[in-house]
Design a protein that fits this description.
With 356 residues, the protein is of the alpha+beta class. It has 16 helices and ten strands. The strands form four sheets. Strands 1-2-7-4 form a four-stranded antiparallel sheet, with helices on both faces. The chain has a two-stranded parallel sheet with strand order 3-10. A two-stranded antiparallel ribbon has the order 5-6. The longest helix has 19 residues. It is elongated and about 75 Å long. The model has no long low-confidence stretch (mean pLDDT 94). Bound molecules: iron/sulfur cluster. Iron/sulfur cluster binds next to helix 8.
């Protein structure tokens, strides 16, 4: 068919795309136009305040991020899809309350989602092609300057909560988002209303006060940024507050009342590997670099590298209950680590020595 064919039924195509997206394992599929004016203003204000820290790539691409047709010429619609990743609900209490346990963000407990999601998005484009013939498109999974939360919000997948994550009324916030940029004039979905109301639970619980106001995240204070994005020394002022978080932090999502509606993922890829959901700090700190690389093959965590892994666990061990064993393990690791990591280990040893 010709893409300019006025008789082509785009309404039907949109319904078929949504149905096929669900068959491919996504929990929801929405469609939006490409007007991101509001999100662009929010982004520019955020960047101007330097709240992005050292994530320079967020400021680098000019208007491309908020103008989908500049990133992929001809784009007039974006298909936004979400995929649940929460492996189990009951794991929070134990890891959150045991200071000898390692807390790893729930999204990173299993296999990295990028490849798997990309494959499914490609399958969906093949399905569309079988209905329309060749069309211009590009798939994205957290891989390019894309305002994915703003697009998902416009496509009706949820609203951006005060903690700046996307929340769905029926499914909470434990899901990944992917996009397909297309040149087909599909009918668009309607954004849903915001349902945070008077709640401020995520703002109140944040260990480092990174949510400096509703919908305002200062990434430089956020534990996810500090433990994953930041390559240098973690500022001392945040180290106590980091507690046992060694890779990311889910506190704002765990406290969010809408997550009582979340459902556990059916994807075996997202189930915890190497019992990362229950591992102790000492156990993980004792991994050699070879063990780190081997055991975290196919995991998002591997990308931070062994030295940052040790840096993060050293802080958590400094915050752990005082014990001669912990101190000895820290002292032992002082050998063969980079100066930046060494400084964190020395800090942790001092914390272990402080008498209350
Ligand atoms: S914890 Fe409350 S304020 Fe924060 S995102 Fe959830 S509903 Fe909104």
């Amino acid at each position: 068919m010709s893409l300019t064919d006025p008789t082509f039924n785009y309404q039907l195509l949109a319904e078929q795309i949504k149905k096929h997206g669900i068959e491919l394992g996504f929990q929801q599929v929405g469609i939006t136009d490409t007007d991101l004016t509001e999100a662009e203003n929010h982004l520019n204000n955020w960047l101007a305040k330097k709240h992005h820290g050292n994530m320079d790539y967020l400021a680098k691409h000019g208007s491309i991020r908020s103008h989908p047709d500049e990133l992929h010429k001809g784009t007039i619609r974006v298909i936004s899809l979400r995929l649940n990743y929460l492996p189990a609900k009951e794991t929070f209490d134990q890891v959150q309350t045991d200071p000898t346990a390692a807390f790893i963000s729930r999204y990173a407990l299993g296999r990295d989602y990028h490849k798997m999601m990309r494959k499914r998005l490609k399958k969906l484009t093949q399905f569309i092609e079988s209905k329309t013939g060749v069309f211009s498109h590009r798939v994205f999974v957290d891989s390019a300057p894309v305002l994915e939360k703003a697009l998902a919000e416009k496509a009706g997948l949820g609203w951006i909560g005060k903690h700046t994550n996307l929340i769905n009324r029926e499914a909470g916030s434990w899901f990944f988002i992917g996009e397909i940029y297309i040149d087909l004039p599909l009918p668009t979905d309607t954004a849903v209303d915001e349902h945070c109301g008077d709640c401020t639970a995520c703002i109140d619980i944040c260990p480092t006060q990174a949510i400096i106001g509703p919908y305002q995240l200062d990434a430089r204070r956020c534990i996810s940024y500090l433990t994953i994005e930041l390559n240098d020394s973690i500022p001392v002022e945040f180290r106590k507050a980091i507690g046992n978080h060694i890779y990311g932090c889910d506190d704002c999502q765990i406290i969010c009342p809408w997550n009582k509606f979340s459902t556990v993922t059916t994807e075996s890829d997202f189930l915890p590997r190497h019992h990362l959901d229950t591992a102790t700090l000492i156990e993980l700190f004792n991994w050699s670099e070879e063990e780190f690389l081997k055991r975290l093959e196919g995991s998002a965590i591997r990308r931070i590298g062994y030295q940052k892994w040790l840096r993060n666990i050293a802080i958590a061990l400094g915050n752990a209950p005082k014990s001669a064993k912990t101190k000895a393990i820290l002292v032992n690791k002082l050998l063969n680590t980079e100066p930046m990591v060494k400084e964190h280990i020395q800090w942790a040893i001092k914390e272990q020595e402080i008498t209350n």
